[in-house]
Amino acid sequence: MFADYVLFGILKWLDIVSAYKPIDDASSVGQWFDRLEGLYGEHAARVPTVRTRIS
User: Fold this and answer.
1) How far apart are CA 55 and CA 52, in angstroms?
2) Which of the 8 DSSP states describes residue 2?
3) Quick count: other Cβ atoms within 10 Å of Cβ 12?
4) Is 26 left (phi over 0), alpha (psi -120 to 50) or beta?
5) What pTM did the predictor assign?
6) How many other CB atoms are there within 10 angstroms of residue 32's CB atom?
C-alpha cells in the first residue's frame, strides 16, 4: 500500500545517510524493510550507503 512506500522512503533515507544500521534485520520491521528493498529488481537494496563508502 501507499503508506508502506512512504514509511519505507523515510527509513531508506535514514539507512543511506546513517553511519550505523538503524534497523535490526532480525526484527519484524527489518524483515518488512528487506522485503521492500527486494521489490522492483532490488534497486533499493543496491543503493550505496554511508557505511559502504566508509569501509
Assistant:
1) 6
2) H
3) 19
4) alpha
5) 0.85
6) 15
